[in-house]
Amino acid sequence: MIPRPLLRLWSTFSAAGLLIGTLLFAISLTPSLVPRPFALQVILSGVALAGGYGVGVLGRWLWDFMGLPHLPRRPRRYVKLAWAVISVTIAIVFLAMAASWQNSIRTLMNMEPAGGTRPILLGLLAVLLFVAIVAMARFFLFIARRLSRWLRRFVPRRVSIVMGSAGALILFWLIVEGVAVRFVLNTFERSFQQLDAVVEADRDPPASSALAGSPASLIDWQDLGRHGRRFVSGASTPTELEDFFREDTAEPVRVYVGLNAAETIAERAELALQELIRAGGFDREVLVVATPTGTGWIDPGSINSVEYLHRGDVASVAIQYSYLPSWLTLMTRPEYGAETARRLFEAVYGHWSAMDVNERPRLYLQGLSLGALNSERSMDVWDIVGDPIHGALWSGPPFRSDTWRWITENRTPDSPAWLPEFRDGSVIRFTNQYDGLASNEAGWGPLRIVYLQYASDPITFFEPDSWYREPEWMAEPRGPDVSEHLRWYPVITFMQLAADIAGAESAPIGYGHTYATEHYIDAWRAVSNPQGWDDAAINRLKETIGDLVAE
Predict the structure, then answer these.
(1) Of 11, 355, 497, 504, most Cβ neighbours within 10 A?
(2) Does residue 217 sit in the same domain as residue 352?
(3) Nearest to 105, CA basis, from 508, 419, 499
């Protein structure tokens, strides 16, 4: 015998909503671009279940609003029970298949198959999240109705309903955006700021004058920030370079300016320029203006690669613009990183362009993820067309990159969206973990730009319009690291790709948003055209500083 309170609770749920919600829940278990962590799958499935349920409830409300007929009460109970059984059956079938779908991605990425996705626990937790979301929605309706009843004493009924709903929306918005979101963001910023200030016990200030934070530096070691200290201390040492090349090499210059080094962006850019001059950065063969990610991190694989390819005769310079992860930086200060990157480029380019053409270094831009986006924005091509830089390497460009998106949309018609070919390839080329452009020197012009991107990278291939149309990169032929079981579904694919952004770095090195040193070596070889390298030497370099297991 089922208790009456449970029966009353069950009667308040929409059968159509539960069926539609279950369908969306089931589809949310299908694969997308990267292996989905368990907690992320729970959130995705719970939200999908709640979203589908909301669609069903809205449909029922429209049915009633139009005055359409209903089944009698007793048959309606049996129909509701039948739909409930169908919903449970669908959920069980799809939960049983979830592990094999996730393994279809893991196999492509050379990962061990998952032992299972704990389907029972996954289903229960998703249902609990669904119940919590429904409870919040019902609480919202309760507030809206109470406001409407109070307003009905002063205004007509329909006006009171509109005003009550609007009042509830405003109240909830103030609570969520004004209190919860701001509290979370402020907590994140304080936490990351404190983490940035921590000086690791195993990292001492460098002794070499070629590095920022040294005794000769204009910048205090503490003011480099956590990722700045890691960047500087990770420089390729003369000993490491000489052991590899068996000959004398130059010492790389690395300059990094943390957020605490100066008050304003302009002051930090000027400090970076003066430090670069002091360290001899403009005397090197290659000069790289690197733009960090949101936290200030610079992928060591990229900078180490170019330092080895040019036998240490490389200078790199960067400025921190945030403490927060890239996705939070985009939410809170979307313009701050671009302004910092632009000021640094203007400072470096202004000094570089005033030098003798035969004595100045070759100048390149570099950035990963949000760093790639801001690096793109740092340079106005019309300002440098008379004296252009030598190139750029942008890896994992975010989907919000206007330049990247325009180039992709205007690719040659027979090239896929995940690996475009742009015009004659003399200026811009794309590469991934399987492409061999690094050995293709034919047809390059004086300015070389390479985009390094993986077809499985959701940071790059998230499509805002995927809620109503299939992304172009899903068309055949697909990227080699994209599951054949990936299908487009309205709304759900959008939600899956959004979840993939949060789990982008859960993929192993060489897939998703985790870029491999081996692939940076190939990309930098194409961009900077270092001399004296053949394929055998490149393979030896990959074995020395690479981070991938030989395929």
Answers:
(1) 504
(2) yes
(3) 508
Instruction: Classify residue 460: in a domain, yes or no.
Output: no
What confidence score (pLDDT) does residue 179 get? Answer: 58
Per-residue pLDDT tens over the stretch 31-83 = 999 999 899 999 999 999 999 998 888 887 777 777 767 666 666 666 767 87
- The domain boundary, picked from 137, 158, 173, lies at 173
Same domain, 385 and 290: yes
> Could you give the count of Cα atoms lying within 13 Å of 533 in the half-sphere of its Cβ?
24
Tokens of 405: 């998106």
Whether the upstream peptide bond of residue 119 has omega within 30° of 0, thus cis, is no
Per-residue burial over 68-77, b = 16 or more CB atoms within 10 Å of its CB, e = otherwise: eeeeeeeeee
Tokens of 447: 């300015």
- Considering all CA atoms of the chain, what is the largest pairwise distance in Å, rounded to the nearest integer? 91
pTM to 2 decimals?
Answer: 0.89
Q: Are 321 and 376 members of one domain?
A: yes
Q: What is the number of other CB atoms lying within 10 angstroms of the CB of residue 14?
A: 20
Residue 160's nearest CA partner among 169, 168, 170, 149 is 149
pLDDT tens for residues 87-111? 889 999 999 998 889 899 999 998 8
Is residue 145 in some structural domain? yes
Q: What's 435's DSSP letter?
A: -
Contacts of 506 (CB under 8 A, 6+ apart): 34, 35, 36, 37, 512
pLDDT digits (tens, 9 = 90+) for 452-462: 999 999 999 99
Same domain, 107 and 228: no
Rounded Cα gap, residues 491 and 472, in angstroms: 16
Residues 374 and 520 in one domain: yes
Same-domain check for residues 137 and 210: no
Looking at the structure, tell me whether residues 269 and 153 fall in a common domain: no
Residue 393: inside a domain? yes
Look at residue 226 and tell me whether its pLDDT is greater than 90: no
Q: What is the per-residue DSSP string for 140-167?
A: HHHHHHHHHHHHTTTS-HHHHHHHHHHH
For 254-299, give the DSSP string: EEEE-GGG-SSHHHHHHHHHHHHHHHTGGGSSEEEEEE--TTS---
Say if 344 falls within a structural domain: yes
Share of the chain above pLDDT 70, in %: 86
- Residues 322, 299: Cα–Cα separation, whole Å: 16
Structural domain count, the chain:
2
Contact status, residue 506 vs residue 114, Cβ threshold 8 Å: no
Give the DSSP letter of residue 112.
Answer: P
Name the residue range of residue 412's domain: 198-454+515-545
Confidence of residue 549 (pLDDT cuts 50, 70, 90): very low
Secondary structure of 358-425 in HEC code, one letter for each residue: CCCCEEEEEEECHHHHHHHHCCCHHHHCCCCCCEEEEECCCCCCHHHHHHHHCCCCCCCCCCCCCCCC
